[in-house]
Write a structure and sequence with these properties.
three-stranded antiparallel β-sheet; single chain
Length: 301
């Protein structure tokens, strides 16, 4: 933390760091691709060829924000270096922000940056299944989710006896169309996809996958933990995380971004340097476009 504070003790230091992330090969003007430039006031860069002024924050999650970059950097540090994550009220207290709404918007924008654009698909052998998250609805089964439940698709790479990368996504139902769409978005063609015997997965072969179905009917209540152990483990960890950190109070409209945060943490769980997580989040933050807080659905008043 002391080293982090020393690196980013001024707005200029934060801005220079973002310039290096956004243009790793040197500044390029968005208008004419020119490289010659000079700094101006308010953090603008003026192109030496077309005289266009460019802000390093334009087109990123930091655009039009009233928060100083130092606060954004500290928020990214807290969001990535707390083992189980951080809540909006926790971030507000840690950074001394004036309102819960500001902390909520800041943290939610960072969650949107946890999904890397154009990320690689899972490969080799992949376990795929679905689980239900959300509150209980009496008398309702898997296909009747109710207003508080969501169906989540889970795909986990097989790495020996352990797990590799994970992909999570909210899906509409267990129809073949929904399940096939999730697999096609998450798993590279040619991979072996191991699923249960659900009918919705039977058409995967025509998309270039080697389908390996396991019929769990008649194999006991614990069959899924034996034949699909990785997705079962990820499902348990996900539900424990949503309940333990966020107390289950996740809106269905925002669930996708919490799933992205869980995937971001799970896929980097073995990183030996915690600072690399903050670096990765800031790197992805300059590639995500700005979303005004009033457009974030169900933003707190």
């Amino acid at each position: 933390m002391l080293e982090f504070e020393h690196w980013f003790r001024t707005e200029e230091a934060c801005r220079d760091y973002l310039i290096g992330l956004r243009w790793p090969g040197g500044f390029r003007c968005p208008g004419c691709e020119g490289s010659q430039h000079w700094p101006k006031s308010r953090g603008l860069l003026r192109c030496g060829r077309c005289r266009r002024d460019t802000s390093v924050m334009a087109g990123t999650i930091f655009s039009r924000s009233h928060l100083p970059l130092r606060v954004w950097f500290r928020a990214a540090w807290w969001a990535t270096n707390q083992k189980s994550g951080v809540t909006a009220i926790g971030l507000q207290r840690a950074l001394g922000l004036g309102s819960y709404r500001t902390a909520w918007g800041c943290l939610h924008k960072l969650r949107r940056a946890m999904l890397r654009p154009g990320r690689d698909q899972l490969q080799d052998i992949v376990e795929v299944d679905e689980t239900i998250v959300g509150g209980r609805q009496r008398g309702q089964g898997r296909l009747h989710l109710g207003p508080t439940k969501s169906l989540v698709g889970i795909a986990v790479e097989v790495r020996g006896k352990g797990s590799g990368r994970v992909r999570l996504q909210r899906i509409a139902n267990t129809s073949g169309e929904s399940l096939e769409r999730f697999v096609r978005q998450s798993v590279a063609p040619g991979s072996k996809v191991r699923t249960d015997g659900r009918w919705g997965y039977t058409g995967l072969a025509r998309f270039g996958y080697r389908h390996d179905p396991v019929v769990l009917s008649g194999k006991g209540d614990q069959a899924s933990t034996v034949f699909l152990p990785r997705v079962h483990r990820v499902s348990s960890l996900l539900k424990r995380w949503l309940l333990g950190v966020h107390h289950g109070g996740i809106s269905k409209r925002h669930l996708d971004y919490y799933l992205d945060e869980f995937s971001f943490r799970f896929n980097r769980r073995s990183s030996p340097h915690r600072g690399q997580l903050c670096y990765r989040l800031l790197l992805q933050a300059v590639a995500i476009k700005h979303t005004p807080i009033h457009l974030l659905s169900e933003a707190p008043k």
